Amino acid sequence: MFFKLPSSKFSKSTNVFELKISLKREVLNSIISYCKMRHPDEGILILRGKSKNRHILIDGLIVPPFSFSSHSSSGFPRNMLPYDSSYVGTVHSHPSGNENPSVTDLNNFFELISIIVRFPYGDSDIFAWNSNGESVLLQVV
């Protein structure tokens, strides 16, 4: 037997627990340039920013030390990263044109957010995901 749950103030459309992502325009421009430079291989960067009350402001990037990439994968050894409390996630490109995170992407999730930039790497080709593989609204500021 199925039961319909009553509406809640925490329903999906008004979820106070939703993550909100703001990305500075100059950071977006740097991400797109990096992805185009790395093409046809994937590129990966670490996102820096501030997180408060489920809102993340991304205001910087780091090229991870000893990062590696190919046409179908990219990564970096986490144990080689210096401690930095401003890490909020990663961004990487998908030269295939697919914006969805792969199982490998989800299994290697780093910090709070993952951004994927799909080919051809334009302003409308950038997508944010949480650790469950759910789309998160991304706003450029």
Task: Tell me about this structure.
The chain has a single domain, classed as Cytidine Deaminase, domain 2. Helices cover 13% and strands 34% of the residues. It is built from two helices and ten strands, in the order E-H-E-E-E-E-E-H-E-E-E-E. The strands form two sheets. It has an eight-stranded mixed beta sheet. The protein has a two-stranded antiparallel ribbon with strand order 4-5. Strand 8 and strand 9 form a beta hairpin. The radius of gyration is 16 Å and the shape is globular.
Task: Write a concise keyword list for the protein shown above.
141 residues; single chain; mainly beta; disordered N terminus; two-stranded antiparallel sheet; Cytidine Deaminase, domain 2
Task: Please specify the SSE layout and strand pairing.
Layout: E1 20-23, H1 25-38, E2 44-52, E3 55-62, E4 68-69, E5 74-75, E6 87-94, H2 103-107, E7 113-118, E8 126-129, E9 135-136, E10 138-140
Parallel strand pairs: 1-3, 1-10, 6-7
Antiparallel strand pairs: 2-3, 2-6, 4-5, 7-8, 8-9
Short structural description:
It contains 2 helices and 10 strands. The protein is mainly beta and 141 residues long. The longest helix has 14 residues.
